[in-house]
Every structure is written in C-alpha cells, then in structure tokens.
Specification:
341 residues, alpha/beta, Rossmann fold, 4-stranded parallel sheet
C-alpha cells in the first residue's frame, strides 16, 4: 500500500519536538519529510547489568511500521521528493538503506531505482534483499561495489532529474537527522529519562550516524564519546571519514545559520575494530552471541552485519565499566519478522 505525506518547509511552530530546528530555526528553510516518530525511547537493560549500567536507544521504533536509523537521514534526503518522482540510491545486496529508501520514498508516492553489489549474505540480509526487490521499481545488481558505482554514474548521466540518495544516506544533508538525534538524547538526559552515558555505541558503516551524533553532542555541550564499531573494510569505514563528514555537516549548518559551531574534540569519536568479521556482511562470533542474548532478553532481532556487532561492543564496554553505556539500536526487525515489545 502506498500513501502520501505532505512535505513542506518547516515553520518554527511546526518544529516543536524537533530540537535541531529549535536550536537552529534557520534550518527550517531546508525541506524535510516528516517520516519519523520521535523521540525514540530509551530503556535500561537490567538483564545484562544488575547495576543498570547498560541502556538502549530504541531507534528501531523511529517509525510506527518500519524504523531504524536510516529514517532520520531520509527525512532530509527525501525532503524535496514529490509524488511521481524517481529516487536513485546505492547499497549492498542486503542493504537496509536501500530497503528503507524504497519504503519511505513510496510513502511520498515516489519510485526507487536501486543499484546494489553482491557481498556475503546472512539470512537477515537475504530477507532484506527480497523485501527491497519487492519495493523498488527498478533494481540492478553488480558483482562489485566498483561496478555499482560505475552504473550509478551512468544512470545519473542519462537522467539528471533523478533524486540522488548517497550510500547509507551519509551526506551532510542526511547527517542533519542524526545531529537532531543527539540533541534529542540531550533532552532525554536533562529530563531524567536516563543517566548521562559514559559512551554511546553505534555500528560504523558509511559513518552518517556516528558523525551526526558526535557533532550533535558537541553542539549540546556534552563530552560523551561516540564509540563506533567498524563493520566494513577500513578504506570506507574509518575515523577520518566520519570526522570529515561531521565537519562538512558543521559547515552546512554554519552556512545556513551564520553561526559558529563548536569543533569536535579529539575524544569525540573512537573506532573499535575487534568485531569486524573480515568482510562486509560477514558475521562475527561475538555478534552472533550478542544477537542471541538480545533475543532472549528482549525478543529484539539484530542483524549480523551491523547491530549485532555494535551490541557485542556495547556488552564488552559495559563489562569493563560501571559507568552507563548506551547502545544505539539502528536496526528494525519488525518488517522481517522480529517482535519488538
């Protein structure tokens, strides 16, 4: 079923509950599709820690039917999309980004053309791939990421009217959604919904979530390090890439608002490498164990490519510290048969 949401330039009054626009009303000039259900809840995980030091940020509930971290970026990336438009994006064969783009573009009455490359597949990745194939109007799958990128260049050259959504939604425009997420978290901390975390654990793929959280925390004046669990090769998933993306987003906000924003401190971001499976899409044993524990504890499905590895990193950190650790749940398994409570 396809339905249409209104996309409009936000007014200051309409931005209530969207802390990014309350901090920077000038950003209301940027079109935004109101796709997400925000704020997403925060919950303790006492099953993992009797002291209550492990918490979850439930971004799997960022939409009533199909959430996850990608919805936040797509609010801005799909902001100018109208009924009948065509969106072009790229991702791996089991990409949740491709699936989320197709699903939420359809909500706006738009079609999605996707270019994918093959990689190692898990059962969840195959389910994601099959669901994305159902939702995309056109899909091309190549053998390698290089081939996929070349096909994107060819497709964009032939049709300049396509709305381009970058891989993972990781561009300065998309990162704005994750800056808002950090400011949302700051409000939840100040309201007492959770203690101030000593660290926030996220998966690191294309880097948009980590970049936006790090920048947003700096804007909020919270020196909470973002710990990014690398899930792909270092050439694409690395600290320099994330920081460059955060700085580009900082420039975008500065250009739109005329304000000077704080710089990221050296301890704003840390990348951990010990849950990488050796290839994109390849499971890691610690991630598999973490996913099993989450299913037992909460009945939440984690994907082996991203969220299971990040949760394994979160468990490892909280076992070595009594300070609160916040695991940012980026995957929504409901559409694929998961059962969030």
């Amino acid at each position: 079923m396809t339905w249409t949401l209104k996309t409009s330039r936000m007014t200051e009054a309409a931005s209530s509950g969207y802390p990014l626009l309350e901090h920077f009303p000038e950003l209301s000039r940027i079109p935004r599709a109101a796709l997400a259900t925000l704020p997403t809840p925060v919950e303790p995980l006492p099953e993992a820690s009797p002291s209550g030091s492990l918490w979850i940020k439930r971004d799997d509930l960022s939409d009533g039917a199909f959430g996850g971290n990608k919805v936040r970026a797509l609010e801005f990336l799909l902001g100018g999309v109208k009924r009948g438009d065509t969106v072009l994006t790229i991702g791996g064969e089991g990409s949740t980004h491709v699936l989320a783009t197709a699903y939420h573009a359809a909500r706006l009455g738009a079609r999605t053309h996707a270019i994918r490359w093959r990689h190692e597949m898990t059962p969840v990745a195959r389910a994601v791939a099959a669901r994305a194939a159902e939702l995309c109007d056109r899909m091309t799958t190549t053998r390698t990421i290089v081939g996929a990128a070349a096909h994107v260049l060819w497709r964009r050259g032939r049709n300049r009217r396509l709305h381009w959504i970058p891989m993972g939604g990781s561009s300065p425009l998309g990162v704005l959604g994750h800056v808002n997420a950090a400011l949302e978290l700051e409000r939840q901390i100040s309201e007492g919904a959770l203690p101030r975390p000593a660290r926030i654990i996220v998966p690191l793929g294309t880097g948009g979530t980590a970049a936006g959280l790090a920048l947003g925390l700096a804007i909020a004046g919270l020196r909470i390090p973002v710990v990014a669990a690398r899930i792909g090769p270092r050439i694409g998933a690395n600290r320099q890439r994330v920081l460059a993306l955060a700085r580009a987003t900082r420039r975008l906000i500065g250009q739109e608002t005329g304000r000077r924003l704080p710089w990221l401190t050296s301890d704003a971001l840390r990348v951990v490498h010990d849950v990488y499976g050796g290839a994109y899409g390849r499971p890691h044993p610690a991630g598999d164990r973490a996913a099993e524990q989450m299913m037992v504890w909460r009945g939440l499905a984690l994907d082996a490519t991203y969220s299971a590895k990040a949760f394994a990193a979160a468990i490892a950190h909280h076992r070595h510290s009594e300070d609160p650790t916040l695991f940012w749940l980026t995957f929504d398994g409901r559409m694929l048969g998961g059962a969030p409570r």
